[in-house]
Amino acid sequence: MEENGNTKTETRSIKSEVRLQVLGIISRMNLEKSTKLPSENQLTKRLHVSRSTVRSVLSDLEAEGKVTRYHGSGTFVNSLTISATSTIYPQLSTFDMIEGNGYVASSKEIYSRRIPVDERGITRLQLKPGDMMTELVSIYYASGVPCMYCIDCMIDELSQIDWKKRGLDKMSIYAFIRQETGVDIRQDIVSFVSAESSDLPGLNECFGVEEGKSKPLVCMKMQNFDIHGRPVLYGNIYVDTDIIQLNVVRSLVNV
Question: Cα–Cα distances in Å, from 163 out to 98, 109, 111?
Answer without folding.
Answer: 21, 7, 9
